[in-house]
Structure formats: C-alpha cells, structure tokens
Design goal:
About 60% of the residues lie in helices and about 0% in strands. By secondary structure, the protein is mostly helical. It has two domains: about 15-80, Tetracycline Repressor, domain 2 (Orthogonal Bundle), CATH 1.10.357; about 80-200, Tetracycline Repressor, domain 2, CATH 1.10.357. The radius of gyration is 23 Å and the shape is elongated. The model is unreliable at about 210-218 (pLDDT under 50). Keywords: DNA-binding, Transcription, Transcription regulation. InterPro entries: Homeodomain-like_sf, HTH-type_TetR-like_transc_reg, HTH_TetR, Tet_transcr_reg_TetR-rel_C_sf.
Amino acid sequence: MAVMSPRKAAAQRDGQSLHDLLLETAQKMIATHGTTGMTVREIARMAGVADGVLYNHFSDKEELVARALLEHVRTTEAELGELPVPGEGTLVGNLRRHVEFGLALHKALVPAFSGLVSQPRVLERFAEISERSGYWRDRLVAYLEAERKLGRLRVESEVDATAAMLVGYCHASVLTAVFPHTAPLDPPPVNSVVSAALHGIAPRDSEPADEPGPVVEA
C-alpha cells in the first residue's frame, strides 16, 4: 500500500485540494525566495507530492507560477490596507498614502517579478489571468480622475502624467535595492514628491512661456 506524504494527508484532512496545496506552496515560495530558479521538482518537494502531480491540476509550470504570483500580489495588497476615498481627507494626505502604498507594494513585488525576466511565458500567463482594473497604477489614475471631477484638482490636470511620475518614483526608489550593483540612488522624501506633483515647478500665477518662433534668415 502506498504511503501518503504528511502534507498531502494533512491537506486532504483539511479539505484542501491538491490544486490549492500546490498553489499555496508556490505562493509561499515566491513570498520567501522570489521566483528565481523555481522548478517543478522543488515545488512538488515542498508540497510533499510527486513531481507529475502538478500536471494533473495545471497545464504547465508557467500557469502554476503565474497563478501563485497573482495570489502573492493580492495578498500583498490586502496586507497594505485600504487606499483613500476621493473627496475625503486632504489631497496631500491622500497622495502621500498612495505613494507610500506604491513604495511598499514595489518593495514586496519587484523582487518576485525580477526573477521572471528570462521567463516571458510566465509573464504572458500572468497578464492573461490578472485583472488590469486592480493594478495600483490604474487605481491611482482613477483616484485622480475622481478628484478632478469633484473639483479638487484643476480641470486641465494631467492625471495620467502625474500617475506616471509617481509610479516612476516608486520604481526608482526600489530598483537599487533589487539591483544593488547599479548606481546609488538617493530618492527625495515622499512629501517632496507629493508637493511637486500637486504644485509643479513653474512660478505660481504665471503663464507658460511662448514657444520660440521660427528663425528668419536675413
């Protein structure tokens, strides 16, 4: 009679399917060690099952890793708490919360995604199963658009460009931690970035300079 592994037996006693066991195992591995070097054999060994069991529940390793990565993203976002509600609080405080959320999210997720640079199929599967509306950048854009509709931002505010700059700040702040061999970066404090996003760098109450006209040769 075949002997069932302790983890497999425990999973079945708790009503957890082998599908969920493998997904949970892969997610924990991503949270602890990232995605670099993940193999079917290692996932199966950590789950306490035979190597071939994975293919009974997932089409391939790429699907399992992509779904585990999505669960890792969802779990991380849930742990970071709620984002501000448009129209409530102050713009400064709300944007600061968004940026701090983005920084924490990048610190948790960039290491996992960086290990997939050489595995484009996993990234393709992740894009197929993930809901774009849930991305933090899109939630930031939606927040800014809502504040603009409420009249708390200028009608001509470039919300897409503002979101891109704030996301870029989070990227730049985290990348040196993931790639320490790159040039050192001393990012400005969050408050300064929020102030620049809200107030810009041009003199207040001034019109933009006219574009220079064409040069006319004598």
